[in-house]
What we know:
The structure is a homodimer of 373-residue chains.
Chain A: E1 2-3, E2 6-7, H1 12-16, H2 26-33, E3 39-40, H3 52-63, H4 74-84, E4 91-94, H5 96-108, E5 114-118, H6 123-131, E6 135-139, H7 148-158, E7 162-166, H8 178-187, E8 193-197, E9 219-224, E10 237-240, H9 243-248, H10 260-270, H11 273-296, E11 300-301, E12 308-312, H12 317-329, E13 332-333, E14 345-349, H13 353-370
Parallel strand pairs in A: 3-13, 5-6, 5-7, 7-8, 8-9
Antiparallel strand pairs in A: 1-2, 4-10, 9-10, 11-12, 12-14
Helix pairs in contact in A: 3-10, 4-10, 5-6, 12-13
Amino acid sequence: xxxxxGPLLFSERARRLPATTPFVGPEAIERQSGLPCRxxxxxxxxxxxxxxxxxxxxxxxxxxxxxxxxxEQFALKAAxxxxxxIEASHxxxxxGIDGLFGLLVHLATAPGDAVLTSHGAYPxxxxxxxxxxxxxHTVPYRGDRQDLDALLDRARALRPKLxxxxxxxxxxxxxxxxxxxxxLIDGVPEETILVLDEAYGDLAPPTSLPPVDLLRPNLLRFxxxxxxxxxxxxxxxxAIGQPEAVRQFDKVRNHFGVSRIAQAGAVAALADQDYxxxxxxxxxxxxxxxxxIARSAGLVPLPSATNFVAIDCGRDGAFAKAVLEGVLRRGxxxxxxxxxxxxxxxxxxxxxxxxxxxxxxxxxxxxxxAGGA
Amino acid sequence: xxxxxGPLLFSERARRLPATTPFVGPEAIERQSGLPCRxxxxxxxxxxxxxxxxxxxxxxxxxxxxxxxxxEQFALKAAxxxxxxIEASHxxxxxGIDGLFGLLVHLATAPGDAVLTSHGAYPxxxxxxxxxxxxxHTVPYRGDRQDLDALLDRARALRPKLxxxxxxxxxxxxxxxxxxxxxLIDGVPEETILVLDEAYGDLAPPTSLPPVDLLRPNLLRFxxxxxxxxxxxxxxxxAIGQPEAVRQFDKVRNHFGVSRIAQAGAVAALADQDYxxxxxxxxxxxxxxxxxIARSAGLVPLPSATNFVAIDCGRDGAFAKAVLEGVLRRGxxxxxxxxxxxxxxxxxxxxxxxxxxxxxxxxxxxxxxAGGA
Lengths: 373, 373
């Protein structure tokens, strides 16, 4: 059982997985560069923060955290069901959408099974696909949007186990209208689970989301408290689907994984819809301001239905990378897509006026250095 | 691709997994029975709670939780490394030991691979083994302890991918001395990863734990903030091993899964060792008191190096089940092992004086009804 280098510990698949992962946080950039992060605009967090009521509920729950959280998340599911107008049996809760994606790939694929997404779409979904040995197929973006019709055509030929689609989309910020999403839902092969990522759904135009009770046996819709609710660091996401699909997660999830604090915070956040509406207004205003900053610098902001703006730097990926690095060197944390043709974009999360002012200044400096604008 | 009942969604293995899971929390018991839980002594939590410094740190982190936690958990790993006298590269952090067990089974097994444990040992480990299609083999307990020599003999014949051993043990509370654990570590086949669960290690006699820097390529030691640190609801566990083994977890983990609040709380808890020592003293005193209660009721408490006591009800599993149910009906949440010969035990977590008084009263009533003592 041995060979050079010692015995074969871990599975063959695990040994073949890459040791590096694409998750470089601002803390790591700070540690590597030695520069403090002056504005954190790279992870699509909401600097406007959680509702004060959620913060208070979490502080209270911290003191009670000698006890495990409810593994059935009864109160949170009941609150979500009331808020959304569906049944608790339509909901499963996990440690963020990322955690739920890992469970879903575990549940839905065997090694070698096909999974379909767009080339340049959410990398963490792809990361879990690789971890389970499923095979990722991709369709290119078209006009900086996911190409819905090409995805459907490919799905009909490929019959993948999972088809990933984000509405609104990350990293472009684009969105599709409800009629298109219905066409997607109705057109997906019946043996393919449509993974509809609605992480930014709270920020989307109402015309873009099908009613929440539009469900199918092969449809799971993913939502989160990380974006509009401003609770990225708390780790609560959920999936909505028909009970038979939702129940599958109970077979493999970390039952106590959603912390007592997270459950209490999410319940309190849901109860404060005034705060959510106010945050959405602030995000929308900051998004407009980001567009103005981009245009003032001679760049083109893409339309966005999210809490970030993808800015077209107007040349190739190498130029956008130079701009990105110039902005980072000035202590402003932003990101950019890695693959063409999206790699000519930089992606900037909205922030407070002071954050955006720092970005505007950094962008000007970076463009000057990179020889642009 | 279809058959009666619709298309085949989810994998064949997932469809075969049981829909019910063994995680019934006190909240669910309350909801099902309609009785309020007067004393929560069934989940081996620490009612003495987290350090006040940890609570303060978590409350502060709650307000900052618009931002994702550091995916590399740099500060927490550095604090753990300093505290333990090892390197940060020896540590991986996860959403409790349960979460790390899921990742480990994912990393270390392929469907059909053998995994070895004791019959009646930690069910959540077994749950993850089943979820990944590995095959669980077991060795019986002997004298209410894991049978170390029988496990070693079986491992040499079976060459399993994983061998689970808890020190101290749950559900019996028993422990092994350091020399035995060294024998286990040295005797495990080199292609078997020894999963040494030290969740209760902070409560164990110093003579029972090998030095923390005793590491092997095929050894992973699991520890947690859920037990002595009183932070079960927060979800922080970690594994200690050689860097090559520890690094594997980065290939499959939910990188942002350990919340910002959890990381801040764990760092603060580590810094308050006075509080930990005081908690361990309170747990030890309460454990002695639980022993007195058991003996006063005519039952036999097993020796324990944990924050719970397994009490031998002296007859068969049916009798112990009647005792358990009588105690539960009186609003005192405790648990019992499900499989023989451990099923004649009830398992009671230590508590404050008032919790233990409620248990003593409930036990007396339950024994009276069950016709015992």
